[in-house]
What does this fold into?
Amino acid sequence: MNNSPPGGPQGWGGQQGWGGNGWGGGGWVPPVPQAPKPGVIPLRPLSLGELLEGAFATMRRYWRTLAGVSLAVAAGTQLVETAVTRPWLGKLQDLQSLQEQGETVSVQKLLNALAGTFGGLAVTGLIGLAGSIVATAMFTAVVSRAILGRPMTAREAWQEARPRLAGMAGLLVLVPLLITGVFLACLLPGLIIAVAGTESAGVPFMFLGILVGAVLAIILWTRYSLAAPALMLERQGVIDSMRRSAKLVRGSSGRIFGVMFVSGFVVFVFSSVVQIPGEVIRTILTQDTTSWSAMIITGIGAVIASMIALPFMAAVTALLYTDQRIRRESLDLELARAAGVGGND
It folds into this structure.
């Protein structure tokens, strides 16, 4: 049985074919054969625990490949963010000192302090976006091999990811813009009413808009959460990968949102634990949170946390995509054939 879409098998880690009687009347039922497990997950529908364990198993087995990419992306992003943020925080601190001395802060001084903010945010955002594009594409390629139990080097991951980087860039720009646009559209009516002079009527509308916008943003984020692995592994275009994600998510949005939420919470807890020692050291060394030494210490903790968060979330997303295709399209049979193990035919 092969219900995978055109291009699906060929796209999975470069492997062709991916996509993917007992006794009667006697009261004895033979044991159900266990699903084959050529790699980090068994080839059958997965529970939440198995999805998380599969992500951690991928990180353990392919740590050499993942660590280099994670370090480069996290360190590069954090370096730019620190370099951009430190001067801006220094200017704001100067303004705060003037206020504490009772001096009036002029509009010109305020504008000077904020002059580099938008430019700095733009630079930081572009660097972070570029890193996310490369990391997501390469990590998804690694997970595709991890499911089949096959090795993959960083060079091989780059070769798999490189042709899809333009599409991944379009996807990682379009989806956030769509979600942000919907949220702002919900907020706009209340904002217009408040600006028009009827603040008492505008505030409730703004609150309602925020609530509706947040709900719609969550729905859209869940609907397109599987678009990145669809783009990578099925060689889909940007719009087609979004449609593919919506099709896979349909009817399972609650479960998928739950898995992604729990995964995000795991990352949050881990990141907090990792950064606590850095904050303790920073507090001991300096009380000035805007000093270079303080920001460097904080940045190191953020880099370490990102080195775990980036591959973990990419792995969970790719495994969740695989799980949905196993449940809906019997992808486990094609995966078993691609891995050279027995399937439950």
